[in-house]
Amino acid sequence: MSTPHEPTQAVTDPQPDPAPESTDGTPEPTTTSPVRGDDPLRGSRTSGVWVATVGLGLLLVLLVVFIAQNTDTTTVRFLALEGEAPVAVALLIATAAGILLTASAGTLRILQLRRRTRKDLKRR
Fold it and tell me: What does the pLDDT look like over 61-119, one tens digit per residue?
């Protein structure tokens, strides 16, 4: 035999106060920010390391495919130097040189801005 069900009250979360409105009727931005511990899906250092590891793994697989497909030998000339190298190796060396030049220019600019900021802070 089944027993009759008693009506239950719906449990609802209290509604947050509406955002205060400005004089023109548009809601004003709230100044409260969510607490870091409230979001269980927030990013963490471990998740960042995992994403970086997966990304680097995919990059290495693509690099291996690139090298395997570009094994033809080519003549490389630079200034008075000349030599034979696989196409993939020549392209990778050129890419690495470009990255190093860009990184050195960026590093010099960062150092310049830090020096300027330190100087401005000392004047105050």
Answer: 998 898 888 888 989 888 988 999 898 888 888 899 999 999 999 999 999 999 999 88
The strand pairing partners of 82, in sequence order, are 77
Side chain identity at 35, as an amino acid letter? Answer: V
**What is the model's pTM?**
0.49
Whether the CA torsion 113, 116, 122, 124 is positive or negative: it is: negative
- Residue 93's beta-bridge partner residues? none
Over residues 42-52, the pLDDT tens digits come to 778 888 888 88
Dist CA 74 CA 53 (whole Å):
33
Between CA 86 and CA 91, with CA 89 as vertex, the angle to 5 degrees is: 110
CA distance 124 to 120: 7
For residues 41, 46, 51 and 53, what is the CA-based torsion angle, rounded to 10 degrees?
-160
Cα–Cα distance, 107 to 101 (Å, whole number): 10
Question: Is residue 105 a contact partner of residue 87, using CB atoms and an 8 Å limit?
Answer: no
Residue type, 68: A
